[in-house]
Amino acid sequence: MIRVNGEEIQTHAATVSGLVEEMRLPAPLLLIELNGTALRKSEWENTALSEGDRMEILRVSAGG
């Protein structure tokens, strides 16, 4: 299990990008932090997930 935005989830994803796909999130609009480290989108595909990881996912939105 990993923790996403404070909630424990079970996933079959092996990487950050796999989790984004599994959760059907809009990748171009996301900022992701894994275990306290902000990740560039180019790092998602090669960043492995491990039991006990803590991830924060933020959705960027424009507004006025």
Structure overview:
This protein has one helix at residues 16-22; strands at residues 2-4, 7-9, 30-34, 37-39, 54-59. It has one domain (2-59): Ubiquitin-like (UB roll) (Roll). The protein has 1 helix and 5 strands. 11% of the residues lie in helices and 31% in strands. With 64 residues, the chain is mainly β. The N and C termini lie far apart (38 Å). Strand 1 (2-4) and strand 2 form a beta hairpin. The chain has a 5-stranded mixed β-sheet with strand order 2-1-5-3-4, with no helix packed on it.
Shape: globular
Number of domains: 1
Measured between the Cα atoms of the first and last residue, the distance is 38 Å
CATH architecture: Roll
Unreliable runs, pLDDT <50, ≥5 residues?
A: none
Structural class, from secondary structure content?
mainly beta
Sheet-strand content, in percent, reads: 25-35%
Q: Can you list the strand order of the major beta sheet?
A: 2-1-5-3-4
The CATH class: Alpha Beta
Q: What's the CATH topology label?
A: Ubiquitin-like (UB roll)
**What's the average pLDDT?**
95
Order of helices and strands: EEHEEE
Largest sheet: 5 strands, mixed
The tally of beta strands, per DSSP, is 5
Number of discrete helical segments = 1
Fraction of residues in helix = 10-25%
